[in-house]
TrEMBL record, chain B:
Tagged with keyword Oxidoreductase: yes
UniProt keyword annotations, A-Z: Molybdenum, Oxidoreductase
Name of the protein in question: Aldehyde oxidase
Residue intervals of the Aldehyde oxidase/xanthine dehydrogenase a/b hammerhead domain: 19-131
GO molecular function: iron ion binding; oxidoreductase activity
Length: 155, 773
């Protein structure tokens, strides 16, 4: 079957099957930032943004997103220019192995789009569905906080 | 003083990682890929009587089914260690005998993972069920089921008693030491199973290159050991294999194992097709684990806190196979006991097989389990002699310029090497940490919530002395940049960046001029891999030597180009400058001169490095917790870690290692636990049921790096990757005692266990009727 889905702002017609998970479709189509960590909706490594909400692509069948709009990490820096969240992650040392990073950055984006100046507690809540085993989250929280503070200054 | 070292240089791989570029093992697409799935044993102890794969083989889309009947039987160890490995050769590709629930019966390679899974279900196996043994103390007894009775294994000390190895060392006079003591305490401490849970599970992709050579692209800590072990198991030469380590999605020890690579490789060799083998999260949980260790610890002390005798006896459970069995056991003594000034010490270790999941290397490598015992015991001693815990810590630890007889007596799987502590700022770590935690003597909270404080001190090593070797190659390009080729393996720790900074500092160029390529057995020199806290210290030493050699060559050419002797030359900012005339040649000019003009040659050097010592990093940890007396739940409020890792080559990356290992350690201490059913099957092999910390669970963290200068390390550096995972268990156990006056000597400190210890509930719930080992 064929579905129509907007990925990172571009309308795509993609072949899939009723049983294919969105995670598998996206990886098959080259969106490799979508990571396979547990396939049971627990680790958050396969997170994407669906209509403004953070969702785990391993828990969604590909046909379910037909007619919808999704964002993967590839969509944040289409021309190579890093998004402020990506820059903050890099500069604050919030990246170690980098496997949870795509999901974390998208979780941060969903948060900051809705709430540009989140508290530390709000940041921790927003990324609580995304597991990281390397950093202990300390520098991830700091990086997201910094983006919020920078936005604050710009306001 | 330094321009590149000691700076928070951005990760050299950071740009690609924040963009989510396809840099991990699974991020390549190959045509005609086969997907592999395991059939695993449902029994903890059984022999395969017969196995019928015909139905599976008949299925459309199935390329190959492998069992013990059609694969080579080559005993080996899966522990990715230096050769000859100190672990027993007790594993084969597919065994006939099953030794734990999850042991590998067979695998199917098929056109899709779904077909492979369906085909696995069609394999018909008849088992002869054997009695299992789960309790490590029972496993040692006469008449216990013998787990490794096969004839062709080697390196097992006493298979009939399931005893993989043992060690006993004595220094001083233990009896006399206890005789001198004012206080003698003896207690039993138990540290439990755990899994590393890297967010990327084990994964390997194999294929044949255009010349028919086998390429193994794998998520590993030990690419060179992968090549050697696979060559042995597959019966092919090392020269027929290339191992590539791409970016790795976390490892923490679990990827110091070689046990999927040769199966995928065998599929590729048999079918001449690419093959992919990726563990599911559930399989990952019982892939490799932390050794559960029982420690019986007896300590004697004088009233003033002087330690007079330590008798430490451990029983380590390695599960079904002996991966890292003896070395972890040795480390529980050798990385723990030298911390304490004590003239009379005995260490006795035994490591046994059981029919439970296989243990292996895990960050801390036995020291984590050992420190839970010693640092809990120190608080118990402190209370007996009426001393504050922090005062006892101030008094009893080894100091700069001192040695411990344990360094000589006990190594890693063998005798050790004597060493004197040439750098330690542990005293400062203790003072600074104590200041920052703001330890309050009389907790004020009333009612349900009780506040408590605890501390622990710890050390680790920096590489395995006289064993670990790293090598580096540096070659110079026309634009004055350098390729740095290292076998060292960046698992996400940032070691590529650290090594680039060491090269840049030495060559006096910005780090951006160093192009790092690591861990490809065809293109980089050898390195034992990323383990034993070795990369910065050992591989960094190799990079330093290599860069120095390249610098000598650059200066030599500068001498000729400037017509000056080297005494009159200096190197700065990528130039060789005459001190007399101030005239200079740039690196670009020097490289072009060498490549195109005079005495044409490539400026290049390769050097190797080993160390005959393993200078310990030190740390002092302090924790503040709140216990809810009603629920037994512990909340860690604040955690302070002061760490001496020598010179931090990149402080931000070093802090990241400390923060990550501490949160992993707190999570281990409080929530992570293997629950087994009566068959020895793990019942909670998912992130839903095996709770690792999320961002919501973390305490306020304060990390302070307290620099020392280690003369044997590159720019004064020691290790930092493992040491801090040793602190949370004892520090929190001590804080629990401070808060509610109960001593819990078995990890993890779950609400049930806390309530039980406080006498609030009689029995643990049904879930705990089965021991957690």
């Amino acid at each position: 079957m064929q579905i129509e889905v907007k990925i990172n702002g571009v309308l795509k017609k993609l072949e899939t099957s009723p049983g294919e998970r969105l995670l598998d479709l996206l990886r098959r189509k080259g969106y490799k930032s979508v990571k396979r960590g547990c396939e049971e909706g627990e680790c958050g490594a396969c997170s994407i943004i669906l209509e403004g909400k953070l969702v785990k692509s391993c828990l969604i069948f590909a046909p379910q997103v037909s007619g919808h709009s999704i964002i993967t990490l590839e969509g944040l820096s289409p021309k190579g220019e890093l998004h402020p969240i990506q820059r903050a992650f890099l500069e604050e040392g919030a990246v170690q192995c980098g496997f949870c990073t795509p999901g974390m950055i998208l979780a941060a984006k969903v948060l900051l789009d809705k709430n540009p100046h989140p508290s530390e507690k709000e940041i921790k809540e927003a990324i609580s569905g995304n597991l990281c085993r390397c950093t202990g989250y300390v520098k991830i929280v700091k990086a997201i906080k910094r983006v919020g503070e920078t936005l604050n200054k710009n306001v | 003083m330094f321009k590149e070292v000691g700076k928070n240089i951005q990760r050299v791989d950071g740009y690609s990682l924040v963009k989510g570029n396809p840099v991990f093992t699974d991020d390549i697409d190959l045509k005609d890929m086969l997907f592999i799935k395991f059939l695993r044993s449902p029994h903890p102890h059984a022999v395969i009587k017969s196995i019928d794969t015909r139905e599976a083989e008949k299925m459309a889309g199935v390329a190959l089914v492998l069992t013990h009947q059609n694969t080579p039987r080559v005993p080996h160890t899966t522990a990715g260690q230096g050769y000859p490995e100190p672990s027993p050769y007790d594993s084969v590709m597919f065994p006939r005998k099953m030794r734990f629930v999850g042991d590998r019966v067979a695998c199917v390679a098929a056109e899709s993972p779904e077909i492979a899974l369906d085909a696995v279900k069609k394999i018909d196996v008849e088992y002869k069920i054997l009695s299992p043994v789960f309790n490590p103390e029972d496993a040692l007894k006469d008449g216990a089921p013998i787990i490794h009775d096969e004839k062709d294994s080697s390196g097992i000390l006493d298979p009939k008693h399931n005893l993989v190895g043992e060690v006993e060392v004595n220094v001083g006079n233990l009896d006399a030491g206890f005789g001198e003591a004012d206080v003698v305490l003896e207690n039993r401490y138990e540290a439990h199973y755990a899994q590393h849970t890297p967010i990327e599970p084990h994964i390997v992709i194999t294929y044949l290159d255009e010349n028919g050579r086998l390429v193994i692209r794998t998520s590993t800590q030990v690419p060179f050991h992968v090549r050697r072990i696979c060559a042995n198991v597959l019966g092919i030469s090392i020269r027929k294999i290339r191992v590539i380590k791409p970016r790795i999605g976390g490892a923490f020890g679990t990827k110091q194992e070689v046990y999927l690579e040769y199966i995928a490789a065998y599929v590729t060799l048999q079918t001449e097709r690419p093959a992919k083998f990726e563990l599911t999260r559930s399989e990952e949980f019982t892939s490799r684990t932390r050794h559960p260790i029982i420690t019986v610890l007896k300590v004697g002390a004088r009233k003033d806190g002087t330690l007079t005798a330590i008798d430490m006896r451990i029983l380590s459970n390695t599960g079904a196979y002996g991966s890292h069995a003896t070395t972890v056991m040795y480390n529980t003594g050798s990385k723990v006991l030298p911390l304490y000034r004590c003239p009379n010490v005995r260490f006795e270790g035994k490591v046994v097989y059981t029919n439970l999941p296989v243990a292996g290397a895990y960050r801390g490598y036995g020291a984590t389990q050992g420190y839970f015992a010693t640092e809990s015991m120190l608080d118990e001693i402190a209370e007996k002699i009426g001393m504050a815990p922090v005062d006892l810590r101030r008094k009893i630890h080894i100091k700069e310029g001192e040695t411990s007889p344990i360094f000589d007596a006990l190594g890693e799987g063998k005798k050790g090497i004597p060493q004197v502590i040439s750098s330690s700022k542990l005293p400062l770590c203790i003072e600074e940490g104590f200041k920052l935690i703001k330890w309050k003597k009389k907790p004020k909270e009333e009612g349900k919530m009780k506040r408590g404080y605890g501390c622990a001190i710890m050390m680790q090593g920096s590489g395995i002395p006289a064993v670990d070797m790293g090598a580096a190659t540096i070659k110079m390009n026309e634009d004055g940049s350098f390729n740095l080729l290292v076998g060292a393996t960046d698992l996400g720790t940032g070691s590529d960046t650290i090594l680039a900074q060491i090269a840049a500092e030495t060559l006096k160029v910005p780090t951006e001029r160093i192009i790092v390529y690591s861990s490809d057995t065809d293109f980089t020199p050898f390195d034992v891999g990323a383990y034993a806290s070795s990369t910065t210290y050992i591989s960094g030493g190799a990079v330093l030597k290599t860069a120095r050699k390249v610098l000598e060559e650059i200066i030599l050419i500068g001498e000729k180009m400037l017509n000056e002797s080297k005494e009159n030359l200096k190197v700065e900012n990528g130039k060789v400058v005459s001190k007399k005339t101030n005239s200079s040649v740039t690196y670009r000019e020097i490289a072009c001169n060498a490549l195109y003009e005079t005495n044409q040659h490539q400026i290049i050097a390769s050097m190797s490095h080993i160390s005959h010592k393993s200078p310990p990093p030190f740390a002092a940890h302090f924790v503040e917790i709140l216990i809810n007396r009603g629920t037994g739940k512990i909340k860690v409020e604040k955690y302070v870690a002061c760490v001496d890792c020598g010179t931090a080559i990149n402080p931000k990356l070093a802090e990241g290692q400390v923060e990550g290992s501490i949160i992993n350690g707190i999570s281990y201490a409080l929530t992570e636990e293997f629950i087994f059913n009566k068959n020895g099957k793990m019942r909670n092999a998912s992130f839903r049921d095996y709770k690792i910390f999320t961002a919501m669970d973390i305490p306020e963290m304060k990390v302070v790096l307290i620099p020392s200068h280690e003369p044997s390390g590159p720019f004064g550096a020691k290790s930092v990757g493992e040491v801090c995972i040793n602190g949370p268990c004892p520090a929190i156990a001590n804080a629990i005692y401070d808060a509610v006056g109960v001593r819990i000597r078995k990890t993890p400190f779950t609400p049930e266990r806390v309530l039980k210890a406080m006498g609030e509930i009689e029995h643990l719930k049904d879930i705990h009727k089965m021991e957690n080992y």
